[in-house]
Design goal:
- This is Glutamine transport ATP-binding protein GlnQ.
- GO terms for molecular function: ABC-type amino acid transporter activity; ATP binding; ATP hydrolysis activity.
- It is found in: Cell inner membrane.
- The chain has a domain of 172 residues: Rossmann fold.
- Helix content is 38%, strand content 24%.
- It is built from ten helices and ten strands.
- A six-stranded mixed β-sheet has the order 6-7-8-3-9-10, with helices on both faces. A four-stranded antiparallel β-sheet has the order 2-1-4-5.
- The protein starts with a helix and ends with a helix.
Length: 250
Amino acid sequence: MIDEVERDDIVTVEQVEKYYPNGCHALKDVTAHIKRGEVVAVIGPSGSGKSTFLRTLNQLEEISSGRIVVDGIDMYASDTDINQLRQNVGMVFQSFNLFPHKTALENVMLAPMIVSNLSKNAAQSKAETLMKRVGLEDRMQSYPSRLSGGQQQRVAIARALAMEPDLMLFDEPTSALDPEMVGEVLDVIKGLALEGMSMVVVTHEMGFAREVADRVLFMEEGALLVDDSPQAVFDTPAHPRLQQFLAKVL
């Protein structure tokens, strides 16, 4: 049963724990709420649990205990169709994972045709619109090997958007890019934020987190230590561990 508070949330995470078989305690009593239309940046040192947390939001990682509700669906309820839920949650990874034997346009067309049974013509029209949206209207017929890293990541974003998700998850989307290519990918994500897309972004780009996020989550050793506005996180950080982290990365 979803209560009134959760109706405003696109993501509700309550007291989530995650243990790996080797005994690693990856998430420790994590509770977080993400509102519809909100952009939340997740920051913290390597190994702090950021990516694990993100991957639990579409069950790429299963939790050990706790509760996660995404888009009004209790992810671990017995009658939940996780594959159906994943269609409403777009995911963009560090690596681009494009099919090398298909053009950029064909990569974007594929999921709507296979999963949503869209006709080839309808899928192509949608894919062309999305390629323009990410600034790649002149590279539709290019194969991934002919695209820069930034261009490949923008194709990956268009591919995720092709399923018309209600929530987008980004797992360090610029970490595999050369520095000069980072901006073009962040600009696309900023555009989605302006359009009101609900997003959770794990990132090392502190400037992006400060400028675009509505809230910033700071994680350390699997625990969520800070959940606050970008201004509070970056201008007046109160938590000692956050102060130490920012001193090293800013």
